[in-house]
Write a structure and sequence with these properties.
The structure is a single chain. The chain folds into four domains: about 200 residues, Rossmann fold; about 170 residues, 3-Layer(aba) Sandwich (Rossmann fold), CATH 3.40.50.1220; about 170 residues, Thiamin diphosphate (ThDP)-binding fold, Pyr/PP domains (Rossmann fold, 3-Layer(aba) Sandwich), CATH 3.40.50.970; about 35 residues. Helix content is about 35%, strand content about 15%. It has 24 helices and 24 strands. The strands form six sheets. The chain has a six-stranded parallel β-sheet, with helices on both faces. Strands 11-10-9-12-13-14 form a six-stranded parallel β-sheet, with helices on both faces. Helix 13 packs antiparallel against helix 15. It is globular, with a radius of gyration of 26 Å. The N terminus is likely disordered.
Length: about 625
């Protein structure tokens, strides 16, 4: 299938995709851009102005004065991209951000890549030098179109102002359909200034030749999947971010309950299944729960729903669910079979595929036999009891896990954003999140993401509690966005899990690099975060021990305004369990020693497939030498 970059505007125009005739408006390109964005329901734009984009900001000024749209001035363009990303993750809508040419545009790159890796719908508008100056190394000129080609779903350079309305309509359509992703629109300054007869293009009027995402799953493939599910004794639902993007939470639950299937999620899939449900196993993978990782190692059927078998889940791919048949459901055909060849590939919108599966089950009376998976669930529950997630209680310090558990107790329904590192993994382990209430950079692992993403989520959902869990290192990547919180009174709560280290780097240096802690200690010149918050006009707090914890979290949540909390925690706490690189999911380190002694290597007979856990040399079923 052709890439979107091969689909030209001329082709789209030949398909009669313009809206029905409406009265023209004499306007410039900047007006056309802002008006087109407003017509797509955009209420908030995150950005930072500069010379090349000033014509667009001039029209934005007029639009803001008229009402219905608000620009949020960030302190760094990276913050604009992450805020638009957080806005999109919290709502499912397309996030929008602006930046000028040159350094303004390049400052967006990390945020664009973050959104691309996690399939987040965004429209990014950049200013550009005038058309005649492109290619001359003009002041603040960069080829942002070329720079971002590998990290966008599609991109445009606008060369005619009359194309703007069509391009905006296409951008929103592409960003939000199929597998979502960021779309870039680069607007030269003279194009934004040129007047022309503007004809609006309304949302829903776009059809693109060669771009037809598959929504409905192949009926034959769905029919093939159902017997596998019915026959399985050890099934497992492996749910990723595609289920979140498709809003398939209800359907995942119905399928799980209909066949009594345990559910594990990826980092991106957190919230797709009620984590307080008896069938919930939490996250799997490198820092997943032990019982989720054991389950994926022993299952006989793996139903992958909007997940992509990435390396943080399947560190050793050839041993990942190696005894299981695989049903893979995903809207992106490029992901199905990319890392693991499934027995049943189903390309389509996750929700629509599950709806059709459930419909067939109801119409044909398909369901699991009574107690069919009970032995499997009993085994998983025994792992759950033997290898629980541990909340350490040290005599001389407060553990990071204690802080996160306390937040979850006092704000169970909050929207949580995180930065990247140990605190991110502890948050993934101990928070119990609802749909879209977990917002974290998964694929790219971007430090500095948490604060601006929380800002975007709170702007989108002002009545909801939004909490950013950060680390002392990550927070310093984009701490300037405290100024944005202060200016607009954005009521985000920030809790820094402060251990004075780049925590995950330190843990890896300890485990795999002979305790050579090269450039990972952050204690030297650590700012006073309480005073830093106060300098921005924000309430700052410090928690130094567990006796202060409960009251401080309550005080933070009760405050009507943004708050920055500096929580001093155990400096050398490690995040466990952990699947080391190159190991399979059952080979975790950091499990309680008394339980590790009980572990037996799992050997499956190559002849009959029966599992042997007795350390015998011969299969107990057929006698084949193991």
């Amino acid at each position: 299938m052709r890439s979107l970059s091969q689909i030209s505007l001329a082709q789209a125009q030949n398909q009669e995709v313009y809206a029905p005739l409406v009265p023209t408006i004499r306007a410039n390109g900047g007006f056309a851009l802002i008006d087109s964005i407003k017509r797509h329901g955009v209420e908030h734009i995150f950005g930072y102005p500069g010379g090349a984009i000033l014509p667009i900001y001039d029209e934005l000024y007029k639009a803001e004065s008229a009402g219905g749209i608000q620009h949020i001035l960030v302190r760094h363009e990276q913050g604009a991209a992450h805020a638009a990303d957080g806005y999109a993750r919290a709502t499912g809508k397309v996030g929008v951000c602006f930046a000028t040419s040159g350094p303004g545009a390049t400052n967006l790159v990390t945020g664009i890549a973050t959104a691309y890796m996690d399939s987040i719908p965004m429209v990014i508008v950049t200013g550009q030098v005038p058309l005649a100056a492109i290619g001359t190394d003009a002041f603040q000129e960069t080829d942002i179109y070329g720079i971002t080609l590998p990290i966008v779903k599609h991109s445009y350079v606008v060369r005619e102002p009359k194309d703007i309305a069509q391009i905006v309509a296409e951008a929103f359509y592409i960003a939000s359909t199929g597998r979502p992703g960021p779309v870039l629109i680069d607007v030269p300054k003279d194009v934004a200034l040129t007047e022309f007869d503007y004809v609006p293009v309304e949302p829903g009027c776009v059809k693109l030749t060669g771009y037809r995402p598959t929504v409905k799953g192949n009926p034959r493939k769905i029919a093939q999947a159902l017997p596998l599910i019915c026959e399985s004794r050890r099934p497992l639902l492996y749910v990723g971010g595609g289920a979140i993007a498709a809003n398939a939470h209800a359907e995942v639950k119905q399928l799980a309950e209909l066949f009594n299937i345990p559910v594990t999620t990826t980092l991106m899939g957190i919230g797709a299944f009620d984590e307080n449900h008896p069938l919930a196993l939490g996250m799997l993978g490198m820092h997943g729960t032990a019982y989720a990782n054991f389950a994926v190692s022993e299952c006989d059927l793996l139903i992958a729903v909007g997940a992509r078998f990435d390396d943080r889940v399947a560190s050793k791919l050839d041993e990942f669910a190696s005894h299981a048949k695989v049903i893979h459901i995903d809207i992106d055909p490029a992901e199905v079979g990319k890392n693991r060849t499934p027995e049943v590939p189903i390309v389509g919108d996750v929700r629509q595929v599950l709806i059709e599966m459930l419909r067939r089950c109801e119409e044909e009376g398909i369901y699991a036999a009574p107690n069919q998976t009970q032995e499997w669930l009993n085994r998983i529950n025994s792992w759950r009891e033997d290898y629980p997630l541990i909340v350490p209680h040290h005599a001389d310090s407060m553990s990071p896990q204690e802080v996160i558990v306390e937040m979850n107790l006092q704000a169970p329904d909050a929207y949580y954003t995180t930065d990247v590192g140990q605190h991110q993994m502890w948050a993934a382990q101990f928070l119990k999140n609802g749909p879209r209430r977990w917002i974290s950079s998964a694929g790219l692992g971007t430090m500095g993401y948490g604060l601006p993403a929380a800002m975007g989520a709170k702007v989108a959902l002002p009545q909801e509690e939004v909490i950013c869990i950060s680390g002392d290192s990550s927070f310093q990547m984009n701490l300037q966005e405290l100024g944005t919180l202060s200016q607009y009174g954005i009521n985000v709560k920030i809790v820094i899990i402060n251990n004075g280290w780049q925590g995950m780097v330190r843990q890896w240096q300890q485990a795999f690099y002979g305790e050579r802690y090269s450039s990972s200690n952050m204690d030297v010149s650590m700012p006073d975060f309480e005073l830093l918050a106060q300098a921005y006009g924000i309430k700052g707090m410090v928690i130094r021990n567990r006796d202060e914890l409960q009251g401080a979290i309550a005080e933070m949540l009760a405050h009507n305004g943004p708050v920055l909390v500096d929580a001093h925690v155990t400096k050398d706490e490690n995040c466990y369990p952990m699947v080391a690189p190159g190991k399979n999911n059952s080979q975790m380190i950091g499990l309680p020693q008394r339980k590790v002694e009980k572990q037996v290597e799992l050997i499956y007979c190559s002849s009959c497939g029966v599992k042997n856990t007795s350390n015998n040399n011969f299969c107990p079923e057929c006698g084949t030498k193991l």
